Amino acid sequence: MNKSDLIQKLFDKGIFVTKEMIEEGLDEKLLAEIDDVNIVQDDKNVKILSLNHEIVINFENEGYKYNVQDFQRVFTSRYKFLHDLIRTHKSMKNIISIQRLKRKKDREHVSIIGMVSDVKESKNGNLIITLEDPQSNCKAIIMKDKDIFVDAKDIIFDEVIGVVGTGSDGVIFVNEIIWPDIPHNRSIKMSPIEEHAVFISDVHVGSDNFMEKEFLNFIKWLKGEYGGALQKQTAQNVRYLFIAGDCVDGIGIYPNQQKELTIDTIVGQYEAFASYLKQIPSHIQIFICPGNHDVVHLAEPQPVFFKEYTQSLHDIENVHLVSNPSMIKVGKTKDFDGINVLMYHGYSFDYYVANIDSIRNNGGYKRADLIQQFLLKRRHLAPAFKSTPYLPAYEEDPLLIKVIPDIMITGHIHYSKVANYKGVTVMSGSCWQACTKFQEKLGHEPEPCMVPVVNLKTREVTVMDFS
Ligand SMILES: [Fe+2]
Ligand SMILES: [Fe+2]
User: Fold this and answer.
1) Which of 67, 147, 349, 454 has an alpha carbon 20 to 30 Å from 338's alpha carbon atom?
2) How far is the centre of ligand 2, averaged over its atoms, from the C-alpha of 414 (Å)?
């Protein structure tokens, strides 16, 4: 087998061949060892890096005329999944159905699980929540002088919660609220391999506010041609790039957008976007999901980009087009389960910034971390039905967060943020677009060209600034 065949074979198995390996000479014996494993070997002379990835969650849909039963099925699946999570909580003893609560004549200590169908404030400032289970509904009262009242103010329509308190006759006075959430005691997964993953979003190619010079510097950095010695060294270890939607500016997305476009066809915008991606070294695997500016329908899950407009992207071998939302596992080896990355563009975020006091009053659009935490706590990407257009095309609610991610990357709000929530690295990609007139009117202050880089071995995050 000649050298180029060997390199090809390694590539086929998802192994990146470094310069050092070629200099050292590729060893047939090593290849034989490689055959049945996912390659993790890192010694003084030979550096072998895994390029494994697996698309864990990806939505496709054929499209049909939806009816009430479709929404009913999706909501029932939501209730069931979240109910089963909540019922395992240590506080959820004495769980009874709402029907049984209605039959109780004497007040007793009980727990109820229900979907929120109404939230009202009484004349005295207490909260009155209507909870539904599959058979019936009841009122849950949260008194304004309780410690839980602050958290209770964040309760929204259509989320599923557990309540613990004293109840009878169809009314429960709440002492504790239980959200499905993610467990506290999760350990942070660390890859055995020194690999880096890079996260961006909202490139908006085609807009006259697209920051091309800065984006080209970012690509130069990925090629090892930009930045200081340390930054160039980091670039060498980059194996994955995630792009969380709004790749192009699109056409007719907001009023008078055409006056702010430099490329006025959708195909032209994707061709320009593809021309940038083609410059990225081919050993970097690129995962792209759509956003609300991209050429797919707005209802979520948004499928992979329609081929007729984006052939140029489909043609790039190291580009993997996925749905919004989606989950991708990277860095899996024989002994390591890999890092699960949840990608969601974040179209539902506008609703939560506008409607949730604890988000709006603590930074709003500048606090993607608070929104992500809010959603992880509810194990759903858009718990309020009104928060995003929704496609009931699946057996189960597609926006449930069923698999707990290790990393969650979102976009849409054009403001960079990195935080940790119970072992999940939550990140918001910034953008590559200066403030548009439309954003200015809405009071947005974008923070462009910030790039979080995650070392999968240490899980450290470095945010690079290309502005
Ligand atoms: Fe955007
Ligand atoms: Fe967006």
Assistant:
1) 349
2) 8
From ligand 1's centre to the CA of 329, what distance in Å? 25
Task: Give the model's pLDDT for residue 13.
Answer: 56
pLDDT category at 376 given cuts 50, 70, 90 is very high
More confident residue, 410 or 25: 410
List Cβ neighbours of 237 (8 Å cut-off, separation of 6 or more).
49, 194, 195, 196, 455
Q: pTM for the complete prediction?
A: 0.89
Separation of CA 414 and ligand 1 centre (Å): 6
What residue ranges define each of the domains in the chain, with the CATH number in brackets? 3-50 (no CATH), 54-63+186-465 (3.60.21.50), 87-178 (2.40.50.140)
Asked if residue 23 has pLDDT above 80, the reply is: no
Cα-to-centroid distance, 326 and ligand 1 (Å):
18
Ligand 1 mean position to 454 CA, how many Å? 22
Question: Any idea of the CA torsion for 317, 318, 323, 325, to the nearest 10 degrees?
Answer: 180
Nearest ligand for residue 249 CA: 1
Ligand 2 center to 410 CA (angstroms): 10
Distance separating the N- and C-terminal Cα atoms of the chain = 47
